[in-house]
Amino acid sequence: MPNLSAHYRHTKIIATLGPATSSDEKLIELIQAGVDVVRLNMAHGSPEWVIEIVATIRRISNQINRQVAVMMDVKGPEIRTGLVEHPIELKKGDQLMLVTKNAQSMEGSSIPVVDVNYEGFPDAVEIGATVLVDSGLMRWKVVSKTDSSVTCEVRTNGTLSSRRHINLPGVHVDLPALTEKDQVDLRAGVEAGIDFVALSFVRRAEDIHQLRRFLAAEDSDARIIAKIEEQAGVRNMAEIIKASDAVMVARGDLGIEIDLPKLPLVQTQLVKACQAEGKPVIIATHLLESMIESPIPTRAEISDVCNAVREQADAVMLSGETTTGDYPIESVDTLVSIIQEIEPSVSAELNDDIELHEPKSKMLRAAAMLAQDLASEDGKQSGIVVFTRSGFLAYVLGALRPRGVPIFAFTDVESTFRQTLLPWGVEPFLINFSDDPEKTIADAMNTLRQKGWVSSGTWLVVITNALAHQEVIDTMQLRRV
């Protein structure tokens, strides 16, 4: 497709900010390398940092004339160990005691005693249950418990430091979907103007509804991304996907919660379920983990990213690679090169699994097919132009996965513009809409030509609406640039 911007990819890239990428210089490099969405991990962030960093992102985006969306990933209802004065070396067969904050003093105990932040911990676990700590690197077995303490036997050697995350596979944890910290962070995020909220450890649709009510009360139109990272979330994926605006396959904790060999199957299941509902899906965690310390990825990591692209996930996400890694920009460059190499090899068939019960979806499918047919004639350039204020039409078109043709989404709503940076294949533009539809279409065509997205003579499928007999109707037109 000649004259198409070098940045264009169907698959979007999300990068997490951290010490390695928070400076102005690194942010500029990160955005110019091709990042579409910037993630703020609130497990390590404060409300003050959010206000400051979002303002910095907006300033730099305007400075280099390339906009990115901002996702706040709230910490969620995590179970963690407390502070330890010195790291505790644990060997197989050792014992230690986990105590809640209302426990009696354990001074003089013959085994290490460590706080846990969940008061219901003793009730949640049974004797013989497995406790996984620090991303599953340490495995303990519950051997006894009281109302306020749990004694565990160490099954794998390890070193316990402060605030390590605890997983209880298959155990229902009675924690709120939104913690007090989450609410404080979210208010700062809303003030700063975040575009997406990623909700951690989503277990049921009501978790999403609760967050949506909170955002509505704060007058925020941020879209909600459900993170699937525990067994309950997998079991309830259908209702969660329907309730959310997008889904993240959070493979870190998910790989601890379920048997590792099942993880690729669950990933595929989640991707297909999201596509069937027309909801964007993000593949996250460990994509290029070795690039935290290495300038090049492993062959297995390349294959993993390739698989995500072939499954037609909407986005792939970097975490440690861009927060504390030694090669954050190289990691983004690697994703870009893999995506651009693999995407042309993916099937050109439209997504037939989408089950949107919307009259407009039939028209949008026809538009996508027409654009594909135009593009396939002698390798000609084509594309789909859509005008939207809510972003709905752009999201549906992305869900249909039209291969080889970009989806140009024009809007006059700034938040919608940034929120359409996430779905597959959508390239958004912010322009003023005129009362005269013809002028709006002409302005869109000029924008595409001036920015180098199309060349003169290109045929585009244009989706807009018109007033006929006092009724607004959707139209599909063929327009030549």
From TrEMBL:
Pyruvate kinase barrel domain mapped to chain residues:
9-332
Q: What is this protein called?
A: Pyruvate kinase
Q: Which domain of life is it from?
A: Bacteria
Under which pathway is this protein filed?
A: Carbohydrate degradation; glycolysis; pyruvate from D-glyceraldehyde 3-phosphate: step 5/5
What organism is this sequence from?
A: Rubripirellula amarantea
Mention one GO molecular function. potassium ion binding
Family in the record:
Belongs to the pyruvate kinase family.
Q: Which PANTHER family match?
A: PYRUVATE KINASE (PTHR11817)
Q: Which reaction does it catalyse?
A: pyruvate + ATP = phosphoenolpyruvate + ADP + H(+)
Pfam families, per database record: PK, PK_C
